[in-house]
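In response to reviewer comment 3 from the previous cycle, which asked for concrete evidence that the modeling workflow produces usable outputs, we include below a single protein chain processed end to end. The sequence was submitted unchanged, and the resulting structure tokens are shown without manual editing.
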Amino acid sequence: MLRQVTAIIEREGESYVAPCPELDIASQGASVSEARANLKEALELFYEAASADEMQRRIHDEVYVTRVEVAGG
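The workflow returned the following structure tokens.
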């Protein structure tokens, strides 16, 4: 079964961090593509190992990623 979840990838120092807010799982990598691939692997391992109860407990059904405009210096 294929599932779609959100990945937010951002630079952190010399590497990239990739959290998935729906499941509170994150990974990292030396590049954007490596961080994404590592997150995908972490998520696949989670789905293989987690019980149905754990999945229900951790999943956040509504996650919104948006931009907000603010005044600043």
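The mean pLDDT is 94. We consider this sufficient to address the reviewer's concern, and the full set will be provided in the supplementary archive.
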